[in-house]
Amino acid sequence: MVGSLAYSRAIMRAVSPRPGRSRARRAAPSRAPEPPEELPPGRVVHLRGLGELFVRDSGGSGVPVLLLHGWMFPADLNWFRCYKPLLDAGYRVVALDHRGHGRGLRSYEDFSLERCAGDAAALVEHLDCGPVLAVGYSMGGPIAQLMARHHPEQVRGLVLCATSREWRSPRLRLFWNAMAALRLVLNLFPYSAWRRALRAAGFPDSATTSWVTAELTRGSGRDIAEAGRELGRFDSRRWVGSLSVPAAVVLTRRDTAVPPAKQAALAADLGAPIFESDGDHAVVTARPEAFVPALLSAVASVLSRAERSAAAA
Questions:
Q1: Three-class secondary structure assignment of 149-215
Q2: Strand pairing of 42-47 and 51-57?
Q3: Structural domains in the chain?
Q4: pLDDT for position 23
Q5: Is residue 156 within 8 Å of 244, Cβ to Cβ?
Q6: DSSP alpha helices (H): ranges in 44-138?
Q7: pTM > 0.85
Q8: Contact 135, 159 (CB under 8 A)
Q9: Are 302 and 284 in contact (CB under 8 A)?
Q10: 14-30 burial, b for 16+ CB within 10 Å, e for fewer?
Q11: pLDDT-based confidence at residue 173 (cuts at 50, 70, 90)
């Protein structure tokens, strides 16, 4: 999941008519959408001058961890396996839906990663919970980097997971060029596209699958497609090494969407330790037992260094 090339390909295959096959309508899923785990309290927040967005906020006095999700998949789908472990470790968990994703901001402005970083910083200010540990997964990684660059007063440290400084290989460039077609599919067939894609990926008709589908259909096809193109344009190689906050990288060893070499290059530029997770780009949800320990270790490492820096200041 979470911005994977495999899911995007599955969508495109699933909605394409097949020669000689009936276009008969499948029955709607029979189960009500139910999340597989209890989620932190959620609410809609109005950010003055920006609009309304959806946020989950556990509250409490723990160190605030701001979770920034990946491309296509809103906060709950990206992080639902991580909420409880972070809470059990004593952190305050805050997670928002980015523009055009889930219940995130809707705007006539084109989607941009910098605007997402500004939204996140505005939310931290609104909640009066900064500075935060910003944890970015996949697309959330560039958003976290931009947040630390343009809003350093709101960021205590960075944990960057399954992400990179840039996505500019020839193979990925071809993928970003297909975003216009993806935008059309998601605009014309939002529910059926996701249902067919999930069936093609082997998901059964269950309450969890209905929940996943319902969450995916909340997004804006226009913004999701533009977010993909934005990732194709993003490049922090000139400046990421100048970020002054402590950082850590959670490296997904079997990742084909964000090659491990690109993740390691990000860590090298930041001078950040690497915490390895033995999984692919979907490990955050598909194999939480392989991801969560690396995440918790990375968060603890960044927090320890941030506290030492603050004490020495």
A1: HHCHHHEEEEEEECCCCECCCHHHHHHHHCHHHHHHHHHHCHHHHHHHHHHHCCCCCCHHHHHHHHH
A2: antiparallel
A3: 37-167+239-312 (3.40.50.1820)
A4: 42
A5: no
A6: 75-79, 83-88, 113-127
A7: yes
A8: yes
A9: no
A10: bbeeeeeeeeeeeeebe
A11: low
